[in-house]
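FOLDING PROBLEM:
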Amino acid sequence: MSNLNESLPIYIRIVEGIKDHILSEELKEESQLPSTTYLSKEYKINIATVNKAVNQLVDQGLVYKKRGIGMFVKAGAVKKLIDERRSVFKERYIKATLVEARRLNFTVDELQKLVQETYKEIK
């Protein structure tokens, strides 16, 4: 979680960190999350803060509680996160890029070529 934006509230950083672990499949679907007590001790934060983060993940449909056992990653969580992040990616990056491309009078063909060239460079 240390690579996350330090200006965000800690519970949001925990949410985003767990989402990253789900997306990378370090936390697999139907696997158990670390306990709130463990997370509280690990990050030296109040258990109420951890509970707030976990409850947000529940509200977002990414984890669920097995009574008396713990919290688990919900089946379909990876797809849900990919869909969510692709939507954000489109809004945040693609649209802004296309607005600037129009200002610079790029054609669609020129943009496709530029994207393909750049994609090869970062492999």
